[in-house]
Amino acid sequence: MRSIAVLGAARSGKTRLARELRNLLAHDGRPCQVDDDPPLEAVLAAPRPDAILLCGLDLASFGPVYSRQDSVLRAQLASALAEYRIVYGSGEARSRNALAALGFATPDALRLAAARPWRCEECSDPHCERRLFHGLLHPSH
Length: 141
Hints:
Layout: E1 3-7, H1 14-27, E2 33-36, H2 40-44, E3 51-55, H3 64-79, E4 85-87, H4 92-101, H5 107-115, H6 128-137
Parallel strand pairs: 1-2, 1-3, 3-4
């Protein structure tokens, strides 16, 4: 099971993002261990999570206290040579950005792919693909 750590300064939306990721990925059949604001020492210890997401400070007006928290987190991650992705956006946009940062297709893309079966663009013949690949493997001279 893939492990994901969601970090961020206070009021950065990390708890909501962690909850939404858990729900979206479980609903898609990709359950992951998504940790909401785990202790940084645990994140940086071996074994590290498969992915670290840091929530950006774009959801509300943040004062210097939150900016300092964010700066300290970034500095600690950088000094530990930890790979992480910064996630911005609000609501569904933030969830989509997080899924993209994790390398998962967004829920919209997954729904579209499931609703649209593949068909040959030329003839809609289900055997056409077989003929195409047969022709590629056994070209006539």
